[in-house]
Amino acid sequence: HHPDAVVTVDQVGTYDFAWTEVNSTCQSTDIIRVIFHPLPDVSAGNDTILCEGGTVQLRALGTGSFYWMPEDIVTNPDTIATEASPLVPTNFIVTLTDQYGCVNSDTVQVDVWDMPVADAGPDRILEYLLETEVVAADLKIHETGLWTRLEGTGEFSDPDSSTTTISGLTINDDNIFLWKVTNGVCPADSDLLVIRVNDLVIPTLITPNGDPYNEYFELRGIETLGRTELIVFDRRGAQVYKSTNYHNDWNGLDYNGNPLPDDTYFYVIKSQNGKSLSGFIVIRR
Question: Cis ω on the peptide bond leading into residue 70 (within 30° of 0)?
Fold first, then answer.
């Protein structure tokens, strides 16, 4: 009933619409043919991942005129293919207009990942400790890490974990390990960890005179020996001190807590892990 009517169809195709005017005695009819075309096929491509600072090539599929948005971060927005260097994850929309003026669009998601940064932790020196925990910086989302040995000895309980235990280290030499981090998109990053293990240090002299130096018969690395027995003899072979669970606390006293004379004494060390040592220790006040 209205000359400016709007028609809507649910299928593409060719439709004829008739307009008829009628007065009291006559009528007239005219036909208008309308072709409804389908929306054009368009694809923005597959979602992808970009490493920070990188450039991604965007390429659409379809026939017609193209326009990419956001247009300010693509090199050429009105072409089928263009380049973009997004700093953050971005959805790029391509709009296609075909020869009939029909418009359709598609979206491609470009995720942006940070460059991996490997941090194996500080180098360390151990006192006769053949096993230790290593703690690298935590891995970020999408990242994986791997420990490998470059020099020396040592086996990891979990080489894929940033925090793991390493055992079987070499004494008096550098044990060098590589911590490599990757996310599968960006270039991998690596960091070195150097662990040096000092041998068990047994003093040859103690000076228990009340100053802060050389007061005790201190075995550096005793923690690795387990329960340790210490026996001390004088020159005549008489036992002057014994501890079945030594804790680096002997400062030249005998069984009764009296200072032993300045002299050279003989010691025997027996540890829970089977290590036995003996030698001479001089007391000088």
Answer: yes
